Amino acid sequence: MFHCEQDHLGHIVFGAHDGIGSWTIHLDRVPEVAQHVVTQHEYAHHHLQSSSAWGMAMITSAVVDDSGTAASAAWTAFARACRSVHEMFATYFSVIGIDDGLEHYRGNMRYLRYYGLGTALIGGLPLSPAGRKRAIEDLSRALMSPAWLTELTFDQVRRLGQSGDGLPGAPDARLHVLIQSIADESVSTPLARLFEETDDSRDRWDPLAARLSALGIDCPDHEDLMNWTAVMVDGCNEFLPVSIEIEGRGSDPLMSLVENHSRERLRLHSQHRRDAATSELGRTNDPADQRRPGTPHRGTRTHADPR
Fold it and tell me: Bias regions of kind Basic and acidic residues — which residues (predicted)?
């Protein structure tokens, strides 16, 4: 579970992504001027989760185990290892291009720290607003896509939660390596040029993956990531009453837009606030929470090939 919340005593959850395919915005708790920021924050979680190898492995672990025991353990292990990258991306992405967007996080030290990670990662790059958006998106997705995952079969990904072994290539560990490396001008200058001069993420991916792999942050090439994602999606669909689809693989663009909007649930009333700490969409942000993730929202799609 990935939240957008206050970090004060008795924290208030403004929005929550279920880690699979949908999110909820608590409108009774969110000031009207901040609703767009919260929506962008939760959408960013979804976008990163469904376009990266780590996120797809999490989705796979959550939907293929009927008992919930292995799924819960695997999902929690995956979530614990990527929380900083996820929250950094969602927080930074949610305020790009929004006047005074960062003001909506004023006083929220937890999320300001996540924003600070984004600033440490790309703040020193000479980028336009569009370039910053490409940079934070591409780098977060790459951090969440260690090459070893894309070498696993569907059944091997399913068994990750049963092995009890640690997960190598943790995104949060990769993030700290990249922050240190990108301070070097010989690293930052060609990356900034790539983000500024190349519009299509598919054309940026392989050059980016090669540069990051040279820093010890191994990433699969674009074709391998897309092929592996298709295998994971097809495998998950054997366990789901409603199929997951990959946008661009025979999907209708208009229906993709409609279904993307359908992922957002709006909670209008406060009568269930008392149960928020224990409900499926209001669990605490503690990565040790072992409850099984929720089932995928009807019409869930992956965004495996964002532009």
Answer: 265-277
